[in-house]
Design goal:
The chain is α+β, with helices and mostly antiparallel strands and about 100 residues long. The chain has helices at about 5-20, 25-35, 40-45, 50-65, 90-100, and strands at about 40, 65-70, 75-80. The protein has five helices and three strands; from the N terminus they run H-H-E-H-H-E-E-H. It is globular, with a radius of gyration of 15 Å.
Length: about 100
Amino acid sequence: MRKIYSQEQIAKTKSIAKIIGDSSNVLILYELMTFGEKSFNELKRMTDINAVTLSKKLTLLKMEGLVDCRECGIENRYFVTDRSEDFRPLIRNIERLVINK
């Protein structure tokens, strides 16, 4: 028998797809999961995402609870939260496909 998904399950699926379906989000999560806490400028340099887009993506990831930041002098330092751990296996699989080919 085919399963009928609840509206909550559909909304969660759309939210996850919005995150993992965007290459910038995946790059940001990969960078932070692999190399740890980074400043905005470090993320910009390492991911080659323009500043406006990076700012929007970090805001989205923060709203989703996957990334947070702390002030360190005049800059913010970004890091992954415990909630992002659910994405770690996916990020690792993507890493294997891209880097270990």
